[in-house]
Write a structure and sequence with these properties.
Number of strands: 10
Oligomer: single chain
Strand content: 15-25%
Helix content: 25-40%
Number of helices: 5
Radius of gyration: 23 Å
Length: 209
C-alpha cells in the first residue's frame, strides 16, 4: 500500500462510552480510502475483536444521513509482534468481504494481519525490500537495525530519520525539564546533597546522549 498521498487524521473514535473512548494508533486518509494502523504486542481473541470493532466503526462513518453514503474503502493493518498461533509459518492473513457470487466487494473493507516474528532477523539481500522493511520493526537496537538494513538506501533513510526524531524528542524532554527547573525556586538546590547534585547532572547528560 502506497501511503504517499495520505494525511494523518484524528485517531479518536467517539464511541459514546463515558468511561473509555476508542483511540486508534494511526489513522490515514486520502479522500477515498481510510487506513487504520494498529500495533499489537500479542494476537488473541481480544485483539481480533478490537480490530473488528475499529474496522466496522470506520466503515460505518461513511453513512452521513438518510440515504447519503460516501463510498470509501477501509483498510486495517495489524502489526502483531508475535507468530500466528495456529500456524507459525503464516506471515500475513488477509480478510475481505465477498458478495453472494463470491466476488470481492470493491471499496469495501479489508484486514491485513501481519505477524512480525515471521520476519525477525531477515536482512536485505538485494531483492527483498518489503521483507527487510518489516524486519526493521523487529529490531531491538541500532546495531541489529543496521545489520537488517545492510546498506539499502530506503532503510538507511529510515534509520537516519529515526535518529533525528529521537534527537528531537530528547531535546523536547530536556527543554521541558529545564523549564520545570526554572519554575522551582533556586533554593531547592541548597537542600540537595553533593551526591544529589551529581545525580541530577548525570541525568541531564543521559537525556542529551
Amino acid at each position: 500500500i502506497d501511503l504517499t498521498n495520505y494525511t494523518i487524521v484524528d485517531a479518536e473514535l467517539n464511541s459514546g462510552n463515558k468511561i473509555k473512548d476508542y483511540r486508534l494508533d494511526l489513522l490515514l486518509n486520502n479522500g477515498d480510502i481510510l487506513v487504520n494502523i494498529e500495533v499489537n504486542n500479542q494476537y488473541n481473541k481480544w485483539t481480533s475483536t478490537k480490530s473488528l470493532v475499529y474496522l466496522f466503526r470506520l466503515a460505518g462513518s461513511r453513512l452521513e444521513s438518510g440515504s447519503d453514503y460516501r463510498t470509501k474503502e477501509v483498510i486495517q493493518l495489524n502489526f502483531n509482534n508475535t507468530f500466528f498461533t495456529k500456524d507459525k509459518e503464516a506471515a500475513v492473513l488477509i480478510y475481505q468481504i465477498y458478495n453472494e457470487k463470491y466476488q470481492i466487494i470493491k471499496n469495501g473493507i479489508k484486514i491485513y494481519d501481519i505477524f512480525l516474528e515471521k520476519y525477525k532477523g531477515i536482512c536485505y539481500t538485494g531483492n527483498n525490500k518489503e521483507e527487510m522493511l518489516l524486519s526493521m520493526l523487529t529490531a531491538s537496537n541500532d546495531e541489529e537495525l543496521k545489520r537488517i538494513v545492510n546498506g539499502n538506501k530506503e532503510g538507511v533513510f529510515i534509520m537516519n530519520a529515526k535518529r533525528i526524531i529521537k534527537g528531537i524528542m530528547l531535546t523536547l524532554v530536556s527543554m521541558a525539564g529545564g523549564f520545570l527547573a526554572l519554575a522551582v525556586p533556586f533554593r531547592i538546590f541548597d537542600s540537595l546533597s553533593r551526591q544529589g547534585v551529581q545525580a541530577l547532572f548525570i541525568a541531564e547528560i543521559v537525556i542529551y546522549f
